[in-house]
Automatic annotation (TrEMBL):
<protein>
    <submittedName>
        <fullName>Putative DNA binding domain-containing protein</fullName>
    </submittedName>
</protein>
<dbReference type="Pfam" id="PF04326">
    <property type="entry name" value="SLFN_AlbA_2"/>
</dbReference>
<dbReference type="InterPro" id="IPR038461">
    <property type="entry name" value="Schlafen_AlbA_2_dom_sf"/>
</dbReference>
<dbReference type="InterPro" id="IPR007421">
    <property type="entry name" value="Schlafen_AlbA_2_dom"/>
</dbReference>
<dbReference type="InterPro" id="IPR038475">
    <property type="entry name" value="RecG_C_sf"/>
</dbReference>
<feature type="domain" description="Schlafen AlbA-2">
    <location>
        <begin position="14"/>
        <end position="135"/>
    </location>
</feature>
Amino acid sequence: MDRKKLLTLIKRDEGIKLDYKQKIDINSEYGKKELAKDICAIANSRGGRGYLIVGIEDKSKEITGYEKQYSFTEEQIQQIISTRCEPPIPIKVDHIYINGKEVSVITIYDGHQKPYQIRENGAFYIRRGSTTDVMRKQELLSAFQENLNLILESYPVIRSSQEILDNDTIEKYFKNKGIILNSDNREFLLESSSIIYKDRDSGKYCCTFGGLLVFSNFNNLYIPHNMVRIKLNNKNNIVIVQGKLLDIIDKCEKVLSEELPNNYPKEAVIEALKNAVLYRDYTHTNRDIEIIISRKSISVISPGNLIYSKESSQIPNDLSRNSWLYEKLITLDDKKRFLQTRRGFYLMRNSFNGKGKVKFINSKAEGTFKVIFPGTSVFE
C-alpha cells in the first residue's frame, strides 16, 4: 500500500469491502472485540480483498489521523485476529503519513477458508453495505459450499424415500460408468455414490439432495425451488418447468424453440439456461431460475453469484459449486452439453454480433447472476 493507492481508496464510499475508522482501541477488551468483528465481516463478504482504514472520519472522509495512544503494529493486530477469529484471517498493516497525519490501512486478504467466525461466541459476521451484521443461514451455506467445506448434494433429505428415484436413469448412469447394477450391489453403489443415505440408527435409507435433483421426476415434493419459471412475451401466462435436471433443460429448450423467432440465436439462451441449472446456488431455497422473454430483452436469472477463480476475477471457477451434479450430468447427458462450459461465455457473448450487446450482471446485492440478451424485436 502506498500513498497514491490510499488516496484513491479514500475517494470511495464505505461498502462491504471498505470501512473507515477515526481510531481503534486495542487496549480495551471492547475495542478488541469490535475490531475482530469488523475484520471478520469484511473477510466474509464477497469481492476480493478488503480494507479497514484508520484515521479517516467515516462520513466526511476527512483525513484526521489519530493520537499516539491509539497507535498499533501489525503484530498486535495479527495477535488479536489469530486469538479471536477462526480460522485466522490473513491481514497486513501499512502506516502512511498524509499531510503530517498518520493513517493506517489494515488490508484483509481474500482467504480460502471462509466463512470466518468469532471464537468467543461462535458468530459469523458479514457486511451489509457499510454496516456489520450476523450472517444468515443461507449465506453460511453458500460460503461453506463455495469453499468446498460443504457438499450440499450429499446431504440427506430425511423424509424422502428411494422409491421416488427413477430406476431407468440410475441404471443408465452406472451403465455409462461401465457398472452393471443388480439387486446385490444396488444399495451399496447408490450409497457410495451419495445418491441415497443410510441412517445409522434406524438403518433406513433416504435420498440425498443431489440424488433427488438428478434422479427423481418428483423432486419438487422435497425441493420446491428446483424449477424454471418462464415468463412469455406479451402473455400473462407463465410456464413452470420441474423435474430431473436434464429433463428441465430439455423441456425448456422446447419452450424456447417454440416462443423465440426462428432466426433468434436460441443456442445462446439455452447455454445460459444450462449454466443456470447446473451452477445455481441451491441453498437459495426461496428462489428459482427465471427466464423473462420480451421484445426489449431476454433475461436468464440464476440464484447465487457467479464464482470466479482465485487466480483471476475474470475467469469463472465452474466447479467451485455443484461439482457432484456436474459429474452426474456429464455422465448422463447424451447430447454432451456440459463438456465445454467456459466456451459457453464466448458463445453467449458473440452470438449477437451486429445485433446488440449481451450483459453479464453478477449482482452481489441481489445474490443473483443475470445474463441479459437483446430482445426478440431485433430479429423481427
